[in-house]
Amino acid sequence: MDAAVVNTPADFNLMDDPWLPYITTRGTGGTGSIRHVLTHAHEIRDLTVDVPTQYPPILRMLVAILHRALADKGTAPGTFPWSAGQWKALHRQERLPEDRVALYADTWRNVFGLFDQEQPFLQVAKKKLTTEQDKTVALLVSDASSGNNVPLFSSHRDESPSPLTPAQAARWLLHVHAWDTAGIKTGAKEDPKAKAGKTTGNHTGPLGDLGVVVPVGNTLKETLLFNLLVLDGDLTSDGDRPVWERGPLSAEWDTRVPVGLLDRYTWVGRRVRLVPENDGDGGVVVRRAVVCAGDRVEPLVKPQIREPHTAWLKNRPKTGKEASDRPTSLYRPNRHTPGQELWRGLGGLLGWDRYLDQDDSLKPQVLHRLAKHFAKGRNLPVIQLRAYGISYGLQNAVIGDTYFDTLPLPVVLLLEGGTRNLGKLVVKWVADTEEAARALGHLAADLAFAEGGDPDTEKDARDRVTRQYFTDLDHHFRSWISKTTDPDLEEEYRVEWYGIARREARALADDLVSRTGPSALRTRTRKEKNRNGEPIKVNLVIAQQSFNHRLRRHLTTGEV
Question: Tens of pLDDT along 129-162?
């Protein structure tokens, strides 16, 4: 054994030792324990993390703790809140009940030790999880990541990564359970399903299949409550509890349906063991780790009742040769599209996918239930909606891109009030904007063709101007949608947005025309024919006329 390895490390307990960075409502920074951030949640603006995708698993862990800590002594464990009235009462309070949090923290503190010898937090004890050789913490840690759609993991594993502090190791531990890649994993000696030192057929972490959305408030207390759902039969069942309340983990894993929301929020997607070492100054660092196969989520026919932090799209039923005895899931997770602004997928988030067909999608349960809490209120808030996702490649065995975006979202847009509710209208206006983008793309392709370009040149021109259009609109949309809070002003909102979208489209169109050479005035004929079977003629004038017609049709100044 390496002499640097710590045999009995000093306890680093996540319940009481600081490991969660945050910024306060006063703008100052700090780092706190679980106990601290929960009892001071009303004074904390938000948690700060190493990479955006750490946020959902950390928040879900804190929410799971609240569900258990706030349950009345006379009720079944894990059933708080069981009514909208309880939720609203808690929302009206200035702070979370400190006595309940303290009682839970004291009761379960012993299972939150990061390096505990018998039951390390979200890990398997050393005597129950061994492999031929420990690997570096590159198994856990991603490269620096910021912004939207940036590579998360490097193309190679660093053989000598920087050591992790216990606090950093704890944050990455939660991340690997939630987002780890699929593919072959090192087989634990104690795992009866491992073969030749390997385990195959591993899924990604449970969040890897989702387009995660998280509603965020003005304080951490608000954020926690926005994600604290009323636990009913759709979301929980007997025996539902966080994994740390189930006893020590072993190397053995299973494929199963989560018992309920608390089980899902604390799902151990991998069997992990952190290897602590002396840092030479009396402290502890983590350079190596064991990451093996973990529990796999059995797909449900109706998974939306179990996973509330994603929107769901309806699957088309399989027929003929595609049909089988295995039931097809009615819905699939609505994953985020790399490179696409969150607001462009607003239809799925608000339950109006395909822009107007309500049956095609389900809004995330976390948003659906939040809308129910505020349905009869006045002066409804504008929340921040955050979106997270990871795109995998090579059979999900490597990470390509991460997705992170935010959007101000008035709660009134989540309400369903007949066929002309404001949310439905906003989704239609976004759809019309997409059509304006297509009109711009057609213009760019026609001008490229008129100048003698080939299909690749046309595609590049179309993609470039479409991307530029949405980039130009992005800050306008975020500012505009944050003001769409009054259903009685729907026509004013529509006229304002159409005006913005038209102005930006025309500016790009004028720029395209100004940069087009005189050769585009000569008429060329495409190989394709129009709907009437006639040849399609293209020149600069025809292209401009077609664009203007399309723009007037989709961004009209007339009635909706």
Answer: 999 888 888 888 765 332 333 344 443 344 567 8
Half-sphere exposure of 62 (CA within 13 A, CB side): 28
SS3 134: coil
> Crossing angle, helix 540-554 and helix 422-450, to 10 degrees?
180
The sign one gets for the Cα dihedral 377, 343, 361, 309 is negative
Report helix, strand or coil for 475: helix
Residue type, 433: T
Pair 273, 126: CB distance under 8 Å: yes
**Nearest of 494, 490, 437, 503 to residue 464 by alpha carbon:** 437
Burial of 233 (0-12, 13-18, 19+ CB in 10 A): exposed
Residue 3 pLDDT exceeds 50? no
Place of tokens 């053995």: 252
The partner residues of 30 in beta bridges, in order of sequence, read 22
Residue 24 C-alpha from the chain's centroid: 24
- Nearest one of 213, 212, 216 to 225, comparing CA atoms: 216
State the DSSP H helix or E strand holding residue 95, giving kind and residue range, or none if neither.
none
Alpha helices in 313-421 (DSSP H): 346-349, 365-374
What residues have CB less than 8 Å from 479, skipping those under 6 apart? none
C-alpha–C-alpha distance, residues 377 and 322, integer Å: 48
> In 282-379, at which residue ranges do the beta strands (DSSP E only) sit?
284-293, 296-297, 312-314, 331-333, 361-362
Cβ neighbours of residue 201 closer than 8 Å, sequence gap 6 or more: none
- The tens digit of pLDDT for each residue in 87-107 reads 999 999 999 999 999 999 999
Q: What is the pLDDT of residues 353-366, one digit of tens each?
A: 654 455 567 889 99
Phi then psi for residue 305, to 5 deg, are -75, -10
Over the stretch 195-248, which tens digit does the pLDDT of each residue have? 999 999 999 999 999 999 999 999 999 999 999 999 888 888 888 999 999 999
Do 367 and 213 contact (CB within 8 A), yes or no?
yes
Q: 3-state DSSP helix/strand/coil percent for the chain, to nearest 5?
A: 40, 20, 40
Q: Average pLDDT in the 70-95 region?
A: 79
pLDDT tens for each residue of 313-339: 877 666 555 555 555 567 788 999 998
Tens of pLDDT, residue by residue over 212-223, are 999 999 999 999
User: Which pLDDT value is given to residue 314?
Assistant: 79
Cα 3 to Cα 12, 129, 166, 276, distances in angstroms:
21, 20, 19, 12
Q: Phi first, then psi: what are they for 344, rounded to 5°?
A: -70, -20
